[in-house]
């Protein structure tokens, strides 16, 4: 029997697609003992304001307070026993530093955390509480990378990237997988965009597990590199990082950008005052603590109410690690 090249290509696509779906299922099963299945909440007031059914996947209730625990746990669980014995290293001043520290502590792995010297003390304290060993460096991307590389060389530790690593992206996808299990009729899922690890994982989950669900990103206008990257077709950088959404000051990577290009509908940019208003709305009306980066997704929906009217919209609340002594409102 003769088989055409197009039929072979289609068969290969089906096999790869099924393999990718199985990888996400295996990832979810692997990390379940080490994460929380976070709640899904809603607000009748917010629904009325937008004229849609809005549900929130609350990763601010995740272990260490953010979705980052999912990717960190999967990355460490994916290591060989020999690699685990040598430890792991990452550079982060925020949630990934805490996530790697906690996941490593839980699994009996040494964690070296490179943090800029001007990182908030509250974040350094959290890393220490979770058992991470902090190595301080100058507050530049170059210094972070150079310090992490030196530790990798000296200790033989495995480097874990906060967003641009497939194991981290697969781990992140499990938030959306859980979301879709509970809310199978979602028509849109929206996530904040910083380094791209969450939205890439969400897009993969929607592609493999949703009936017909678009994925949209939300980003501060002040750091709109992902928005510009989708338009230009290559990874853009920011020259300024002046946004209240401190967790979104990073840029996309070569591992997550192709996924975003293929599976993300678009990215909506919002202003600083819109982020603060959305954050305050969640605190006051939903009675939950969210960080500014998490509020960016709701800010995008509030800004474009007509676009989401009468739809089932899912928002992933990325985290709740905020210094309550220094709120923007």
Automatic annotation (TrEMBL):
Residues 32-319 form the Tryptophan synthase beta chain-like PALP domain. Keywords: Lyase, Pyridoxal phosphate. One of its GO terms (biological process) is D-serine biosynthetic process. Its cofactor is pyridoxal 5'-phosphate. Signal peptide: none annotated. It comes from the Bacteria. One of its GO terms (molecular function) is pyridoxal phosphate binding. Pfam families: PALP. Belongs to the serine/threonine dehydratase family. This is Threonine dehydratase. The lineage of its organism: Bacteria, Pseudomonadati, Bacteroidota, Flavobacteriia, Flavobacteriales.
């Amino acid at each position: 029997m003769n088989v055409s090249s197009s039929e072979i290509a289609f068969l290969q696509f089906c096999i790869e697609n099924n393999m990718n779906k199985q990888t996400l299922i295996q990832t979810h099963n692997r990390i379940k003992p080490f994460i929380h299945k976070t709640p899904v909440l809603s607000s009748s007031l917010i629904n009325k304001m937008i004229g849609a059914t809005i549900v929130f996947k609350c990763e601010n209730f995740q272990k260490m307070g953010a979705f980052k625990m999912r990717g960190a746990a999967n990355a460490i669980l994916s290591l060989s026993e020999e690699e685990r014995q040598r430890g792991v290293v990452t550079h982060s001043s925020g949630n990934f530093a805490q996530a790697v520290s906690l996941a490593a502590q839980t699994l009996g792995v040494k964690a070296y955390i490179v943090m800029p010297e001007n990182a908030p003390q509250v974040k350094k304290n959290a890393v220490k509480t979770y058992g991470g060993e902090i190595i301080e460096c100058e507050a530049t991307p170059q210094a972070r990378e150079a310090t992490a590389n030196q530790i990798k060389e000296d200790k033989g530790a495995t480097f874990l990237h906060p967003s641009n690593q497939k194991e981290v992206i697969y781990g992140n996808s499990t938030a959306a997988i859980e979301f879709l299990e509970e809310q199978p009729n979602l028509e849109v899922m929206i996530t904040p965009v910083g380094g791209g690890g969450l939205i890439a994982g969400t897009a993969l989950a929607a592609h493999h597990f949703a009936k017909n669900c678009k994925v949209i990103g939300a980003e501060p206008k002040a750091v709109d590199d992902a928005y510009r990257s989708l338009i230009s077709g290559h990874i853009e950088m920011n020259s300024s990082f002046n946004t209240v959404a401190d967790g979104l000051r990073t840029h996309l990577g070569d591992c997550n950008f192709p996924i975003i290009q293929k599976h993300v509908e678009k990215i909506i940019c919002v202003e600083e005052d819109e982020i603060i208003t959305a954050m305050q709305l969640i605190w006051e009306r939903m009675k939950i603590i969210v960080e500014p980066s998490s509020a960016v997704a709701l800010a995008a929906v509030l800004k474009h109410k007509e676009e989401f009217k009468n739809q089932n919209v899912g928002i992933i609340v990325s985290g709740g690690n905020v210094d309550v002594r220094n709120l923007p409102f």
